[in-house]
């Protein structure tokens, strides 16, 4: 939002000077008779005011500390990493200490009520602590006019490449909202460029969004209101992003989107075609993990998907949400498949990809779900014994068709959620694997900091001893213990530790994508102008081209200054 000083545009020189104003030579002669008056300054009061007042550069953008909080899916986490990278490249300091930050960037999730409640509470806390606030993610994109969002800056899910502009204006005290869609000749694009700077939460893992939005219209889904219809990135851009990631020491790639299986249907291609291109550039020992795919869009590619999931550099893992085992409930959800379709996909993949891990989601207490409907879902879980199962109590999201349906009583929803959770915890999926020797890729530290976390060929979690030499490496272990969600592995004493990365990983918090090409050409597309970026060696921060929000203001100020210069030259010439 331009400042008030730019609101008035000069129409004519006479708007500035009238015949009643003093002339330059008059002001010159009068100046001789001016005697400055000396005022005694209260030194103590002056020093106190100087100590209490903010430093003169406190409102200069690019020097503040920013705390970023992200809720939700891996797609949202990728967006958060991109926003952090751009802000850090511009000079802002990304901090993990919320109280120490000048501005909070809150990246929200709209899937369930609790996630939005956490988001709303964080906004309230930021306001209580007088923090500057920028909101991002699916909540403000889907419902920007909610009362608790009034007066706050918002950056839309397709506008994350302009986060620097929004933060800059917010720090200056303005409220900015960028919620538009990116289009090319009328066709909706997947979103911001994939080659933007980012700060990976885990330097060993790259999250790549292959598309945004989906082709479905599920009656319970609020995310559709934010992410919209399917829009896929071109294959060559995705492959280039994967190559860059491996060159920066990444050893594991996650493909993500609202529906990975629908990839390419809007641009004349498909998911298997993309995957075959990607496996060509994956270094030996590095791994690729596929994201969530709905049953309808994988049915026609089952043969090819089985071949890809058998590839040694692709995890034999697939997340296929079923949501309910009742066809009548699925129809009310508008899921566009029946339980038989889901079973066909799972049965085929389990036969063709031995040992594959199938993860799924289930919603308990969807409107209209009867006891019989729920029991069908229980039977499905008992039959397949999914090792990874996400059980969700139904929450009606505002503005969705399901919110207007007759609701299942809250107590019934809670009880069904507990009952299904009890069934899930009644079996142990990994007991039979004790004694096996497995190759595992170590990528992170456990929450309790006691172990390193690795994954085997089937993306099953294996905890290994905290040996720094293992991090980012492929290690051979003997499985010695198992739990509900993990196994423990003992490294084989004489086994070789294999390094899959083709280069050293970036340090934690280091900005990805600050290549020579980026420094020389940032802004040739996207949110900035085509002027080359420069690196200010004195301050070690990227000096980016002027953001769009300032360009109109700057132009109008330049015109005003030019007119003033002409005016001054005119009067000097006349009166001399």
TrEMBL record:
PANTHER family hit by this protein: RADICAL SAM PROTEINS (PTHR11918), THREONYLCARBAMOYLADENOSINE TRNA METHYLTHIOTRANSFERASE (PTHR11918:SF45)
Domain spans labelled TRAM: 431-493
Q: Which reaction does it catalyse?
A: N(6)-L-threonylcarbamoyladenosine(37) in tRNA + (sulfur carrier)-SH + AH2 + 2 S-adenosyl-L-methionine = 2-methylsulfanyl-N(6)-L-threonylcarbamoyladenosine(37) in tRNA + (sulfur carrier)-H + 5'-deoxyadenosine + L-methionine + A + S-adenosyl-L-homocysteine + 2 H(+)
Name it.
tRNA-t(6)A37 methylthiotransferase
Cited function: Catalyzes the methylthiolation of N6-threonylcarbamoyladenosine (t(6)A), leading to the formation of 2-methylthio-N6-threonylcarbamoyladenosine (ms(2)t(6)A) at position 37 in tRNAs that read codons beginning with adenine.
State its cofactor.
[4Fe-4S] cluster
For this UniProt entry, which segments traverse the membrane? 554-575
The alphabetical list of record keywords is: 4Fe-4S, Endoplasmic reticulum, Iron, Iron-sulfur, Membrane, Metal-binding, S-adenosyl-L-methionine, Transferase, Transmembrane, Transmembrane helix, tRNA processing
Documented EC number(s) = 2.8.4.5
UniProt xrefs under NCBIfam families = MiaB-like-B, MiaB/RimO family radical SAM methylthiotransferase
Its annotated compartments are: Endoplasmic reticulum membrane; Membrane
User: What are the recorded GO MF terms, alphabetically?
Assistant: 4 iron, 4 sulfur cluster binding; metal ion binding; tRNA (N(6)-L-threonylcarbamoyladenosine(37)-C(2))-methylthiotransferase activity
Look up and give the organism this protein is from.
Colobus angolensis palliatus (Peters' Angolan colobus)
Location of the MTTase N-terminal domain:
64-172
Q: Name one GO cellular component term.
A: endoplasmic reticulum membrane
* Superkingdom as given in the UniProt entry: Eukaryota
Q: How does it sit in the membrane?
A: Single-pass membrane protein
């Amino acid at each position: 939002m331009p400042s008030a000083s730019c609101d008035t545009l000069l129409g004519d020189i006479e708007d500035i000077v009238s015949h009643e104003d003093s002339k330059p030579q008059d002001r010159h002669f009068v100046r001789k008779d001016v005697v400055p008056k000396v005022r005694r300054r209260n030194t103590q009061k002056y020093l106190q005011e100087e100590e209490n007042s903010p430093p003169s550069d406190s409102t200069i953008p690019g020097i503040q500390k920013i705390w970023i909080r992200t809720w939700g899916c891996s797609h949202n986490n990728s967006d958060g990493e991109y926003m952090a990278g751009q802000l850090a490249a511009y000079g802002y300091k990304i901090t993990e200490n919320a109280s120490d930050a000048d501005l909070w960037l809150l990246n929200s999730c709209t899937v369930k009520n609790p996630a939005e409640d956490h988001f709303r509470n964080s906004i309230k806390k930021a306001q209580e602590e007088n923090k500057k606030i920028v909101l991002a993610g699916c909540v403000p994109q889907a419902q920007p006019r909610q009362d608790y969002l009034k007066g706050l800056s918002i950056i839309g899910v397709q506008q994350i490449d302009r986060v620097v502009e929004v933060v800059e204006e917010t720090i200056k005290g303005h409220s900015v909202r960028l919620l538009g869609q990116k289009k090319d000749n009328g066709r909706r694009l997947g979103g911001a460029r994939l080659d933007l700077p980012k700060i990976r939460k885990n330097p060993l893992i790259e999250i790549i969004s292959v598309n945004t939005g989906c082709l479905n219209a599920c009656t319970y889904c609020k995310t559709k209101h934010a992410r919209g219809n399917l829009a896929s990135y071109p294959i060559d851009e995705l492959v280039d992003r994967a190559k860059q990631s491996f060159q920066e020491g990444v050893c594991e790639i996650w493909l993500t989107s609202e529906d990975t299986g629908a990839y390419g249907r809007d641009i004349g291609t498909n998911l298997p075609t993309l995957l075959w291109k990607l496996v060509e550039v994956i270094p030996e020992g590095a791994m690729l993990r596929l994201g969530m795919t709905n049953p309808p869009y994988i049915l026609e590619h089952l043969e090819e998907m089985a071949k890809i999931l058998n590839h040694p550099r692709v995890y034999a893992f697939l997340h296929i949400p079923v949501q309910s085992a009742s066809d009548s409930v699925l129809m009310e959800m508008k899921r566009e498949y029946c339980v038989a379709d889901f079973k066909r996909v799972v049965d085929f993949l389990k036969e063709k990809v031995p040992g594959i891990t199938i993860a799924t989601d289930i919603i308990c207490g969807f409107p209209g779900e009867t006891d019989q409907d729920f029991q069908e879902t229980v039977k499905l879980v008992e039959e397949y014994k999914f090792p990874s199962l996400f059980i969700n109590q139904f929450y009606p999201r505002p503005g969705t068709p399901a919110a207007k349906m007759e609701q299942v009583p809250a107590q019934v929803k809670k009880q069904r959620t507990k009952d299904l959770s009890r069934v899930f915890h009644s079996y142990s999926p990994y007991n039979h694997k004790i004694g096996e020797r497995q190759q595992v890729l170590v990528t992170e530290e456990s929450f309790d900091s006691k172990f390193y976390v690795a994954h085997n060929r089937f993306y099953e979690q294996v905890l290994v001893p905290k040996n720094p030499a293992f991090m980012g490496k492929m290690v051979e272990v003997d499985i010695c213990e198992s739990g509900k969600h993990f196994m423990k592995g003992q490294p084989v004493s004489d086994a070789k530790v294999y390094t899959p990365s083709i280069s050293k990983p970036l340090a934690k918090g280091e900005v990805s994508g600050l290549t020579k090409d980026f420094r020389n050409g940032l802004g040739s597309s996207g949110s900035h102008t085509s002027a080359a970026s420069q690196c200010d060696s004195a301050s070690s921060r990227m000096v980016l081209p002027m953001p769009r929000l300032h360009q109109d203001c700057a132009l109008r100020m330049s015109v005003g200054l030019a007119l003033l210069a002409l005016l001054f030259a005119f009067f000097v010439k006349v009166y001399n």
